[in-house]
Design brief:
The complex is a heterodimer of chains A (about 250) and B (about 170).
Chain A (H helix, E strand, L loop, with lengths): L2 H12 L5 H13 L1 H19 L9 H14 L6 H11 L4 H14 L3 H18 L6 E2 L3 H8 L18 E10 L2 E10 L2 E9 L8 E6 L2 E8 L2 E7 L3 H12 L1
Antiparallel strand pairs in A: 1-2, 2-3, 3-4, 4-7, 5-6, 6-7
Helix pairs in contact in A: 1-3
Chain B lengths: L2 H11 L3 H12 L2 H18 L8 H20 L23 H7 L2 H9 L3 H12 L4 H8 L3 H26 L1
Helix pairs in contact in B: 2-3, 2-4, 2-7, 3-4, 4-8, 6-9, 7-9, 8-9
The chains are: A alpha+beta (about 250), B mainly alpha (about 170).
Amino acid sequence: MTCQERNDLIEAYADGELDLRASLEIERHLANCKACAAALKSHQALRSALAGASLSYDAPARLSSRVRSALRKQEKVSAVGWQPAWRWVALAAPVFSVAILAIVLVMVSRSPSPGDLLNQEIVSAHVRSLMVSHLTDFPSSDQHTVKPAFSGRIDFSPEVTDLSSVGFTLLGGRLDYLDRRPVAALIYQRRKHLINLFIWPSREGAGAGVAETSLRGYNLIRWSRAGMDYSAVSDLNLAELRSFRQALQE
Amino acid sequence: MGPTELKKFERTFLPHMSAAYNLARWLTRSDQDAEDVVQEAYLRAVRFFGGFRGGSSKAWFLTIVRNAAYSWLQRSQAQGPITPFDEQIHDVEDTNPGPEMELLQNATRKDLLEALGSLPVEFREALVLRELEGLSYKEIAEVDGVPIGTVMSRLARARRNLRQCLIDRGAKEE
């Protein structure tokens, strides 16, 4: 090992990153090599200059509250307001025991089902992908580029289909998070409208069939095929979104 | 995510805000952009919180901050050509370490700020994570997504660059 090669190790030694054996070897060498001993000194001088100059930038005080409120805004959707209602029920319990039964019955019938919550989540993920200019992790209109980009990032391999021949252009892929798991998102464009197609493996016992919903002005179609759940969401009209699904199936 | 889980998220990650801001500020070189990057990093982190499996929450979060800052850099540099980073090209010859000792000891905060700020972003990042945030090589490797050997040689090159930069400044003043 030349002294030049040893240089990186001397820094690692000074950083306390070498194991005992390597440290001892470096120490033996430092005792006998003036050039390396000088290099160590210079390295230590640089480190103490950096440490002594307080070079860190301080976050402005307002940033913390700004981040908190942005988090609350983003997470509002999945924390739908049934909790305060329950608390009210709990408070009223000692007094209106009969009324409670009625209220609970009403609440149970009104409280969102898991499917509704997931729909909310899907629409939110769609809106968010348009808002934070984070539409794609790997932009590409080539299905053979997008599909391999997912491997190693998620534990399944989504089918990626190029639909440009029928007017739906593939813009790329993205990782997202839905239903407490990482999912694949494919982004297609139809004229000015963007479509997020979310794909993830079906949970066991999940029902088949196609479900169409409209939420906050977005159309949403969900279906399952070959062990995968699909959700297409867009501000595109329902008829065209149906044809998008049709084209995917073919 | 329910309110309890959000609280848990905040308890784990809000304490890393100053580190996040410092890294973002050094990478973007702008106060305003650093704030935006930090906010976006938190919004991304909360979505991927389910994938956080313990370990160093600081390294996990700084990885997200770094990626958010790089997407920002890519967007802002989309107009002009970018020289792809090359460790070899950006390396400098090591000068004889004797005479610069005094110079290093006398370097002012302004000298250091400007010298560090002028380094290629990958070098700046490695030095900020190591010298200002005190991350271990292993944590830096996690944040940068490179092997530990690369962290080691990148840090060594970054320090050589920084040293050379300070020497050049010193020579100009005389």
